[in-house]
Amino acid sequence: MPELPEVETVRAAMAAHLVGRTVAGAWTSGLRLREPLSRARVRSLAGERFTGARRRAKFLLLELSSGRTLLVHLGMTGNLVFRDGGRILHDHVVLTLDEGPPLVYADARRFGLFQVLTPRQLERSPWLRHLGVEPLSDDFDAGYLRGAARGRSRPIKSLLLDGRVVAGLGNIYACEALFGARIRPTTPAGRIGPRRAERLVEEIKAVLQRAVAKGGTTISDYLGSGAGGRFQQELAVYGRAGEGCVVCDRPLRNRAIAGRSTFYCTRCQT
DNA sequence: CCGACAACCTGACGGC
DNA sequence: TGCCGTCAGGTTGTCG
Fold it and tell me: Among this protein's residues, is A2 annotated catalytic?
């Protein structure tokens, strides 16, 4: 499911297979997603040609020939796939195209977002307005992280999950990066020194890049191939409470930090 | 400022 | 087999 590398994987698929296509027909279930999905708005996509596919945090921005943008978030269970064979349970938007199989937005839990926005609406979107730096960009470095952490007592894990600071770093990768950097997730953010901040930033970028290269952790069936993301088997701590640490073999812990499951090693992470 | 929690939903899984 | 409780990768907002 979708964290940043998964969204990036979908974005690449859209850039490769959707850009250049024209919408022939548009259908929606009409069921409310994170926000209501207007039937008229979805229908108005007919005739649009896709001109670009970008990503901001975990949002997909699919650009249209009219200048409007399709803003898509996959939530917890959303997916954007090319799929033939008609609608099935949890399909919420189906766009038939001038060529190839239809593009389907499906989302069981409906925590996702699917909006057609004018340039002005996009610019003012509350979903995008307060986002911090992209973790894979050069703007995200140890200096930036320490600046954001300065004087903060909140756990570093909580800071990393705060989208106003780092845009789109999810729970899995926050856990993995903190393990890689050997930092205890509960460490007060302001007490991370320059060396550890450097290491943490490196680990965040490295784990994200590795996951992107492998097609994400669980989803990558955007072409209906059914091939799962190959990163799951590389997770060192996420989802492994009670199992031995890959470094020291001590049982890994799981405890909630800022309301999220947090997996870590009490010996390796200090 | 910060953590806890609720809210939005459905599905998977473990225990009995 | 089935019923029930618990948990889940996201994001926003409220409360204390």
Answer: yes
* A116-CA/B4-C1' distance, Å: 35
Tens digit of each residue's pLDDT (9 = 90 or more) over A68-111:
999 999 999 999 999 999 999 999 999 999 999 999 999 999 99
Contact status, residue A203 vs residue A156, Cβ threshold 8 Å = no
Is the pLDDT at A160 greater than 80? The verdict is yes
Domain assignment of residue A137, yes or no: no
State the DSSP string of A175-192.
Answer: HHHHHHTT--TTSBGGG-
Domain that holds residue A80: 4-129
- Protein contacts on strand B: list nucleotides below 7 Å from a Cβ: 1-6, 8-11
Residue A57 has pLDDT above 80, yes or no: yes
Q: Which of A16, A27, A21, A25 has the alpha carbon at shortest distance from A99?
A: A21
Residue A27: how many CB atoms within 10 A of its CB?
17
Indicate the number of domains in chain A. 2
Task: Report if residue A124 sits inside a domain.
Answer: yes
- Residue A217 has what pLDDT? 62
Helix (H) or strand (E) run with residue A139 in it: none
Give catalytic status of residue A102 as yes or no: no
Residues A93, A192, single domain; the answer is: no
Domain boundary among A107, A129, A151: A129
